[in-house]
Queue: 3 jobs
Job 1
Amino acid sequence: MAKFRIRTAALQDAEAIYRVHKQSISRLCSGVYSPVQVDEWAELRTPQHYEELINDGRVLVAKGPGGVVGFAVFSTESGELEALYVHPEYVSHGIGSQLLAVVESQALNQGISAITLNATLNSAAFYERRGYSSLGPTTYRLPSGMELPCVRMRRTLA
Ligand SMILES: CC(C)(COP(=O)(O)OP(=O)(O)OC[C@H]1O[C@@H](n2cnc3c(N)ncnc32)[C@H](O)[C@@H]1OP(=O)(O)O)[C@@H](O)C(=O)NCCC(=O)NCCS
């Protein structure tokens, strides 16, 4: 895999982030969620949604030579990792781990003592191997009211 680098997202990344998010949900989360759940979830966002997050300085992107291959959204106000997604063609190259490491390092620098998140069922083991503990089952509610089972997780930093 060619080199990639991680940096704060710029507004012009919004469209690519949107595409990575859709692809990642559709192809990587379909093993544990139903086609109906995946379809509704993948269609949830628009590029404008990411522009707002980028304007708030909350988005990191991993970029390879061909463009955005992964992204993370983190809230320094709540300490919540709101999203971590890698393009299906670029998984298992260390991109998710590096995005998570940069989030954790930035959080520590800002005096944040713990990171929390709702892990999809397919990603809970990934977080466990990186020091996150389960706080128990939770759900992510889609606008229609459909609920996606998730795992609430937390890691104390430092
Ligand atoms: C969960 C997710 C973000 C992980 O991203 P990723 O880029 O595949 O993660 P990594 O490559 O860092 O690590 C995954 C595995 O790849 C392997 N790996 C890591 N670096 C590697 C490298 N340089 N070379 C080869 N393999 C590597 C490891 O075996 C690792 O497994 P481990 O957890 O046992 O250590 C990604 O699978 C994804 O986007 N999933 C769908 C969306 C989702 O559910 N997101 C979470 C929402 S809460």
Job 2
Amino acid sequence: MAHVVAISNQKGGVAKTTTCISLGACLTERGHKTLLIDLDPQANLSLSLGHFDDAPGETITDALETTLNPRKVDWDNLVRPTSMPHLDVIPSDARLWSVERLISEKTGYEFGLSQLIGRWMDNYDYILFDCSPSLGPLIVMALTASNRVIIPIQTEFLAAVGLVRLIETVDAIREHTNANLEFNLLAVMYDQRNGICREVLNKLQENFSARLFSTVIGVDTRLKECVATGQPINQYDPKTRATQQYGMLAAELDQMVIGEQEGK
Ligand SMILES: Nc1ncnc2c1ncn2[C@@H]1O[C@H](COP(=O)(O)OP(=O)(O)O)[C@@H](O)[C@H]1O
Ligand SMILES: [Mg+2]
């Protein structure tokens, strides 16, 4: 049964997509079959893995549309391969904006994505959602379908602004649709030579100790480069710092999940 993780923050440019691909690829390297689902109409995750908006084939938009109007979907071809064996992706496209609006008018829409991923839960060890930078119906569906949400936080001044609203959203989801939702914070784009970065990291450790991953992701320009090649960072540059750090994050997440499953 897959462990389902949403990568979310209502800020743009905070490494949600980068974390989704890099963590997913490192989990795969640890022997886990992993499915990435692009839930952002901007489709950056799909593009970064070489799946372009105008390519033929169905996307997550078509899959979600079936919750409105039952019709046939080519489920097997919805899931696309990536450059890494055992790392698959369901791409997104710009039509997701309008489908999101239509879906939210339906009673019980919150559970649409949970029902949809049911068909893949036994085929994968991890399912990761790359969420869009908004707190709309898509994030409600994603958090309802997830075991945990990982919130990447940039280690810079004002980075935590808006975090309160996201945590309130998590609390609301726990109350209404998913009582077991866990959340963790991940410090990203950390530059240890920068005093503000160090100060922000200290504050995060003080305020969120148990929820903050001990792995910290530093600044690494190789992450920007790998996007153009369609390869995850661990394939593009196995020795770079970000590969090691996302590898450590995958190990830390694995330990957490094993601990939780044993505790049940
Ligand atoms: N640790 C990092 N070091 C340097 N650049 C990074 C790092 N993480 C992400 N980036 C870059 O920052 C930009 C925004 O990241 P992205 O993952 O697209 O954010 P989001 O999905 O939250 O909008 C991208 O150009 C990405 O390559
Ligand atoms: Mg993104």
Job 3
Amino acid sequence: MATKYGGYMGKVMLINLSNGRIREYPWTDEDRRLYYGGKTMAAKIIGDNLCKNTKPLSEENMLVITTGPFTGTGAPSSSRFNISTLSPQTGILTSSNCGGNFGYYLKKAGYDALIIHGKSEKPVWIEIHNEKIEFHDASDLWGTLTGQAQEMLDEKLTKKNGKVPKNGKIVIGPAGENLVRFASVVSNERLAGRGGVGSVMGFKNLKAVTVSGNKEIPIYKKNKFEDLNYNWIRYLRNHPLTGDQLPRLGTAGLVSTMQMRGQLSTKNYNYGQYEDYEKVNGETLAEEFNIVNNGCLSCPIKCARTVEVNGKAVKGPELETLGLLGGGILNSDLGLINKWNYELDELGMDTISAASTLAYAMEANEQGLWDNGLEFGKTDNISQIWDDVAHRRGIGDELANGSKWLSEKYGGKEFAIHSKGLELAAYEPRRTVGLGLGYAVSNRGGCHLNGGYMVLVEGLSLNVDQQNPHGKPDFTVVFQDLMEAVSSCGQCLFTTYAFFPPPIISNPNSWYTKAFCKAVPYTGPVLRLLNKFPEVACFHLPVIFNQSKALHLITGMPVTFGSFFKAGKRGYTLERHINTHFGVDRNADTLPKRLTDVPQIPGDDSTRVPLEKMKNVYYKARGWDKNGIPTKKTLHRLNIKLKDKA
Ligand code: SF4
């Protein structure tokens, strides 16, 4: 619906693949004010429309593709878009975020979001150009790898238009078509990797969507926003994390720090350190494999790497892939990781879940639970395994269901490293217990980012006591909510690295950095007040946190730091509220016993995640009851209300 706010195109389209009907979905300015965009907006749409009996792989399930009010405005790292749906991996709400240029072009075409439901009888792809939305036969694209599919789409568009139109695309690979539970959606070289969004697309027989257009993206106070933006980008470029570490080594640069801190998952999370880590770390990637640094549209950080595989320049691996396909399976060949990373992207599979499922299978074999031929350190057959998973052949057919499903069939639940069915990232939580809590309570399952990314202060950039649980639940709430709000604006979460003033990061031995780190365990009561009454922060934070002011200048909405924070809180709680309809409660907020019951350092009880204790404090800080259900009072306080459904 038309909007008075800048930053929005004012249109959300509902596309029914079953009957080909397309209509506008009513999304009002009141909705925009409460939910901004991104994953939060998608959660509201899904919560309003799906009932608790909806199955992930069903006609009723929706793929909700959203942008945010920052997308396409030139705000730093704001080319993100989000795909939310019910996940075939977890059975609950998932949201998967992606860079590239699809979000930008979706807005240029005049849309803030697409909602795709139903199921096409035959494979189709959708072409969107401004007001025109067309379905095309995709039988010739079906079965292609993600790179080839994108090339073929460009050829088709070129044939039609006489030249390659500037466009954004999303495609799935064979993994999505064959309903691999952790299939991803690919856009250029970027991925909406997590939660199996690709298999929902595959189930709907939707191979691809292309978008292009030439609409203006309105900005409420353009000049003032540009002034703010100039200084914001300068700040990010001068920050030690967003201006140095991430551009220099990418996320791969974190491998060495994690090793030092005992946080590098090794041999399926048996250990937190890998003796050959130097062969698979960011420094080696930079020296021996990196061709050029790269990144998403309108991003001053540029954290991506380009490496060479079989003579071709392709996207390099992220930290999670390096950790899980390196020490995670006892492989020290970085060239192989680059190759596998490329293969997984081409087949359209999430590297985190694929790697972690493989590690589970290796351990199940080692322990005599499942005779599958897979062994730690044995790497000669892995490319074939990926292909078999994507095409559901042989043991690949079972691996395609992920580690939770496998552990229910073969046993070994204590070392199937997932939460709510989603495999954990490469950070070993027994040495970053705040992140351990985050993994367990995260709305989309075992996710470090949705979990609040406490590891950033628990060793990666600051030295807050890794094992001390005090203060961590309250900090987790703050980080989760701020990241929720940032993400709902369409901005990359790496910009949140810059929340910490540069001197604190650059001078780890200074008195103020030490004081900050020492103070964290005692900050609970203060943070609890802020969590309960975010409105008291009725101002904008200067320099370090520009998002709330930018949102006001782009949209014209009345925004303060407090209301921005509250919107994040609303989004996070809304997702939880929806998930409770799908059976999520305290019992679902778990980690495998290896992480909660077995100390990483034998005899040192502090090197395990004291989860149940932290959960109690966390639920209280969130205004949820002891069973982890948001109370009526909390829902009311945050203006959360879903439409009644039959
Ligand atoms: S920081 Fe990295 S992932 Fe984020 S927008 Fe920039 S290049 Fe993309």
